[in-house]
Design a protein that fits this description.
heterodimer; A: four-stranded mixed beta sheet; 45% helix; B: alpha+beta; seven-stranded mixed beta sheet
Chain lengths: 148, 149
């Protein structure tokens, strides 16, 4: 079992999902969370870099684990933020057929997406972010840490 | 609020299924009492949902989590089902808040428990206690793991 005692927010690393230019903020977000979706829409177009970290709370948003796995699987085909943007902008369509529509629209390989989103590696990647958030004291989403 | 080193007051309350639960039932193991204001409140929902995510890690350390609020067992059952959690929720309903008072968590002016965490060790002594600055805030799970370290 992981150590979940207090620790600083891990600094951005090479496998973080980052986009934008300039000062960076690390965002722990839940893809099933309406507050996160509102914040995501609000920040679109603003300057600065964002590192997105997974923080799915399944009992609060039962579909969240599947959505985070889908985003991570899309990321393995280079379209992480395209999937995140799509999921947040159309929160009423997040069942599997809706994910497959997104896969097609984003030009992803569906078979690979399906295998990846159910893989242990993707689950571990999502959980790693979640645990780092717990250790950093994240209690609710979105949680934003400015790192400059 | 009760302090580390004090004996944890024993109690018997009914859980969400109407079953009696006593603190002494858990002697020999650790218990984390999670006092919270109300079933269905937004912050309580967030808190119990978050703790559910790390419940296996907490249990791995030999700790049983028990939620306590002044709500009835029926409300607890509905709340538990709504959240999809399996933490047992104890009803401190009548006399209202008596267990919460015994642990120094009750807020008389509001008629509810404050948001308080109490870790009881294997021999029934309070090992650690934490009270939120106000009921609108709850600690992330890292403070629980710090206490268990």
């Amino acid at each position: 079992m992981a150590d979940l005692s207090s620790a600083p927010v891990p600094p951005p690393g090479p496998d973080d999902h980052v986009r934008g230019e300039g000062d960076m903020a690390i965002v722990y977000a839940d893809l099933g969370c309406p507050r996160c979706a509102a914040a995501w829409a609000d920040q679109s177009g603003r300057p600065g870099r964002i590192a997105f970290r997974h923080f799915p709370v399944a009992s609060k948003h039962p579909r969240s684990p599947a959505l985070h796995a889908a985003a991570e699987a899309a990321g393995l085909q280079g379209r992480f933020f395209a999937m995140v943007d799509s999921l947040y902008s159309d929160r009423g369509r997040v069942d599997d057929p809706h994910l497959w529509e997104r896969v097609e629209r984003l030009g992803l390989d569906l078979d690979r997406f399906e295998a990846d989103r159910r893989s242990a590696a993707v689950a571990a990647r999502v959980r790693r972010d979640f645990e780092s958030g717990i250790r950093a004291g994240v209690a609710a989403t979105p949680a934003i840490f400015e790192v400059g | 609020m009760i302090a580390a080193g004090q004996p944890a007051p024993d109690f018997t309350l009914r859980d969400q299924d109407g079953e009696e639960v006593s603190l002494k039932d858990f002697k020999g193991g650790k218990v984390l009492l999670i006092f919270y204001p109300f079933d269905f409140s937004p912050t309580c929902s967030d808190q119990l949902s978050l703790y559910q995510e790390v419940k296996p890690e907490i249990e791995e350390k030999g700790v049983t989590m028990l939620g306590v609020s002044v709500d009835s067992p029926y409300a607890h059952k509905a709340f538990q089902e709504k959240l999809g959690i399996d933490t047992r929720l104890l009803s401190d309903f009548e006399p209202k808040g008596s267990v919460s008072r015994a642990y120094g968590s009750y807020l008389d002016a509001i008629g509810m428990s404050n948001r308080t965490l109490v870790l009881v060790d294997e021999d029934g002594t309070v090992a650690w206690a934490y009270e939120s600055p106000n009921p609108g805030e709850f600690p992330s799970a890292n403070v629980i793991f710090d206490a268990l370290a």
